[in-house]
Specification:
Layout lengths: L1 H17 L20 H15 L5 H11 L7 H5 L11
Length: about 90
C-alpha cells in the first residue's frame, strides 16, 4: 500500500504540472496527460526494461498476475472486476 500511496502523490504532482491539459479519468496508471495507457506504448517502454532485468513476463502475463492477486488485496470487488476484460469481469 505504501507504493500506491507514493504513486498517488506522484500522480497528483503530474496532474498539477499538466494543469488544464489533464484529462481526469480516475485511473491509477495513465499517460502523461491522464488518459488510459495505450497497449503499444506500454509495451514500448516495458519490453526494454524487462529485457535489461532478465524478466520473462510479458504485459499479458502481468495482467493475469494482477487479476489473480486482486481478490487478496484491499481492492473493492467492484473496482477489481472492472480492471479486466475477461468474460467473468461483469463488463457488458
Amino acid at each position: 500500500m505504501k507504493a500506491l500511496t507514493e504513486h498517488r502523490e506522484w500522480l497528483a504532482q503530474e496532474r498539477a504540472a499538466v494543469g488544464m491539459g489533464w484529462k481526469e479519468q480516475r485511473l491509477v496508471f495513465t499517460s502523461r496527460i491522464g488518459t488510459p495507457l495505450e497497449p503499444d506504448n506500454l509495451r514500448w517502454s516495458w519490453d526494454p526494461l524487462r529485457k535489461r532485468r532478465g524478466l520473462e513476463n510479458r504485459n499479458h502475463d502481468l495482467r493475469h498476475s494482477a487479476v489473480s492477486l486482486l481478490p487478496t488485496s484491499e481492492c473493492r470487488p467492484t473496482s477489481s472486476g472492472r480492471s479486466s476484460d475477461t468474460p467473468t469481469s461483469g463488463r457488458p
